[in-house]
Amino acid sequence: MSGPLPALVLAGSRPGGDPLAAHAGVSHKALIEVDGRTMIERVVGALAAAPEISRIVIAIERPEVVGSLPGLHAPQCGKPVAFMPAGASPSASVAAALEREGTPLLATTADHALLRADWVREFLAGCPAEADAAVALARKEAVLAAAPGTQRTYLRFADGEFSGCNLFLFRRAPARGVVALWREIEAQRKNPARMMLRLGIGWALRYRLGRLRLEDALARLGALAGARLAMVTLSEGRAAIDVDKPADLALVRTLAAREV
């Protein structure tokens, strides 16, 4: 990267509330505590500790929900923190942030409670210079080595199985096309047939049969979005562990308690 860049933290709540937040007795999932700190404070702390990050923008519909947390202010947080309204979906929030902040922009989520500054650094350092946008992934083997028996969602390609790490880089203006495609796919998530038609039936079939390489999938998505996409495989499997359900929360709390 040519210099420090802003980071976006997606902290909005689902319409109607988040089941995990209700399970934990808080209004927003970002407020769930892990090893004595709320998840959003842990995420902001990791971003603030990365020299590549200049400032942090939190997308949330009610800033007052998290605004008084000490981990979002000096001296605990050494980077400026600002707020913006969350969109109706994660992709809508990212689209709004790109309109407001421009590129480059790093994005992550408030439930990435194990996030570490060195993972951010590894991701940004590994992004190919020619990529307009990039995503961080971890191989299944690394995830299971970090948390044996954990149940994650994996993308199964001909060259391996990967899990997303909730780290995204939108480096240049064409990355807006990636977000537009993301919003389109997100809107059609309950209509798999239409999604397959959009992506291409042949491509979807190759994926279902385990014959599609990750590199080819990125090239296809990039062609649809009008941008050059890349992926960075992170060395640490814990980077793929976020908090979506009670079992995830229990696992993350266990792993966080072991951190030095």
What's a quick, concise take on this entry?
The chain has ten helices and ten strands. By secondary structure, it is of the alpha/beta class. The model has no long low-confidence stretch (mean pLDDT 92).
Task: Explain what this protein looks like in three dimensions.
The chain has 260 residues and is of the alpha/beta class. The protein has a single domain, classed as Alpha-Beta Complex (Spore Coat Polysaccharide Biosynthesis Protein SpsA, Chain A). The chain contains 10 helices and 10 strands. The strands form 2 sheets. Strands 1, 4, 5, 6, 7, 8, 9 and 10 form an 8-stranded mixed β-sheet that branches. Strand 2 and strand 3 form a beta hairpin. Helix 3 packs antiparallel against helix 6 and helix 6 packs across helix 9. The longest helix is centred in the last third of the chain and has 13 residues. The radius of gyration is 18 Å and the shape is globular. The mean pLDDT is 92.
What attributes characterize this protein structure?
single chain; 260 residues; alpha/beta; Spore Coat Polysaccharide Biosynthesis Protein SpsA, Chain A; 8-stranded mixed sheet; two-stranded antiparallel ribbon; 10 helices; 20% strand; globular
Strand residue content: 15-25%
SS-derived structural category? alpha/beta
Q: What would CATH call the class?
A: Alpha Beta
Topology pattern, helix = H, strand = E: EHEEHEEHEHEHEEHHHHEH
How would you classify the quaternary structure? single chain
What sort of overall outline do the alpha carbons produce when their principal axes are compared? globular
The biggest sheet amounts to:
8 strands, mixed
CATH T-level topology: Spore Coat Polysaccharide Biosynthesis Protein SpsA, Chain A
**How many distinct beta strands?**
10
**Chain-averaged pLDDT:** 92
